[in-house]
Amino acid sequence: MEANYPKYVLYGLLIVGSWLLSCLLHFQVFHLSLFPYPSYLLSRRIVLPPALDASFLPPPPDDAVERRRSSAKAEAASSCDGRYVYMLEVPLRFQMLTECVEGSPAFEDPYHVCVLMSNYGLGPVIPPAAGNGSDGDIIPNTGWYNTDQYALEVIFHNRMRRYECLTGDLAAATAVYVPFYPALELNRHKCGGSATARNEPSKEFLRWLSSQPSWAALGGRDHFMVAARTTWMFRRDEAGDALGCGNGFLVQPESGNMTVLTYESNIWERRDFAVPYPSYFHPSSAGEVAAWQARARAARRPWLFAFAGARRANGTLAIRDHIIDECTASPPGRCGMLDCSHGLEGSITCRSPRRLVALFASTRFCLQPPGDSFMRRSSIDTVLAGCIPVFFHEASTFKKQYRWHERDDNTATTTGATDHRRYSVLIDPDDVVEGRVRIEEVLSRFTDDEVAAMREEVIKMIPRFVYKDSRVRFDGDMRDAFDITFKEVMARMRRIKNGEILGWKQDGDDDVVAKDS
Length: 517
What we know:
The chain has 20 helices and twelve strands. The protein is α/β, with parallel strands linked by helices. The protein folds into two domains: 79-277 and 477-514, no CATH class; 299-406 and 422-462, 3-Layer(aba) Sandwich (Rossmann fold).
């Protein structure tokens, strides 16, 4: 028997079926939005720095947060004019830390690069001081990390990931950031190995980089990157460097067009810009910095001068030999020293942030002779501890190297006025080596008031020489080393875009050939 249903029943069934289908689709979309994306999807949504596995990243924002962010971005769009940065996505084959994933056996080795670059490049947390106080207890229990000296590439990359004016529109960008890690790549190769092996990977990367659409407009002159070693390590002649440790990354035409940030530049022929080594202190608030400054200001300083370092083989750095000899022969209580000369034991001693900072924070003057090059990471440790640096070469001074960070923009000076701040001492090494002066005599001439004034200038520099903790929103108003560097880089990029900078000068302190020169 055939059933005959009224038309309104059929219409009702169609409506109910449509409603059920709509609910099913809505539930599927809503359900997916509740849970983090799988790592393979997350990596497509966010350009991951190779230092981090996807599991270390925050989960995707919920819809409400995303709407608020979109509104904030719309309101802040005008503030990003002239500040937009396009961040390149580096292919997997050029990424340095791909093995640093959760569960990797690499993390079992405390000296493996994965451990050294943990915590977004800050390194392992420095544990609380031992109860016996053998390492000193001046370092607080929070905000301090055993940061590797080559970590700035990773630290800088993570700060750039959080930059508020990143854009995916290449045409809108004032600058292009290149997140390649040339220092970590170079560290893969042992000294004395094949020069070709040390040079070919970076050459291959530059060939890839120069083939990208971002390169075409200005030939890479609007690109910037970090190379976390001294300029000299990347300016080696391949033919004559078979037994060396560096490569020729910065002598290639492509890298010569970019703005590259290194730990030390050639002050006689600038082709890159020097920025401070990362210190052990990575604050999360301005209050944390002020508290450390107060601690450094109040520290007892029984030593007149101090040195942390080692001799060089065959007396190749005579000034170091004389410093160690004079320190050893000084009367008790005059010179403090961490001798790094005794093989592995000495190396471990001088890698202890607590011992280094405790020594420098107990000292009036900290000696900073050249090492493998003019700038030493120890110079940054000196500032951090509020110790007055003593240099033995003009190329080691902050005024010549860290010009962006050395100057105090809060000091009211008229254009062209001389900066009379004094925070360091410069001693001619020939006078020391040839016996015309003794370091102790030179430093003893400063009065207590002069020392206090110089120390205060050093302590005021601390915020400009530290890198904030990029994992948290910084509490307070303070420009750190990254903020200062980035502001200067973007000012340079705008001048390049406007045609005001045409190239590098061949000599002198001025870095650029300007349009009207």
